[in-house]
Amino acid sequence: MAATRRFQTVKGMRDLLPGEAGAFAQVEQTARRVFSLYGYREVRTPVVEDTDLFVRGVGEGSEIVGKQMYTFDDKKGRSLTLRPEGTAAVARAYLQHDMSAWPQPVKVFYMGPYFRYERPQAGRYRQFSQIGAEVIGDPGPHSDVELLVMLLRFLSELGFEDLVVGLNSVGDPECRQRYSKRLRDYLEPHRDELGGDSLRRLETNPLRILDTKVPAERLLLEGAPRLREVLGDPARRHFEVVRGQLERFGVAYRIDDGLVRGLDYYTRTVFEITSGGLGAHDAILGGGRYDGLIGELGGPVVPGIGFAIGEDRLVDVLPASSPVRVDETTPVCVIGVGDAGLDVAPELAEELRASRVPAISESAIGTLKAGLRKAGRRGCRWIALIGEDELAAGTVVLRDFENSSQETIRRDEFVATVKARISA
Ligand code: HAM
Question: Is the pLDDT score of 280 beyond 50?
Answer without folding.
Answer: no
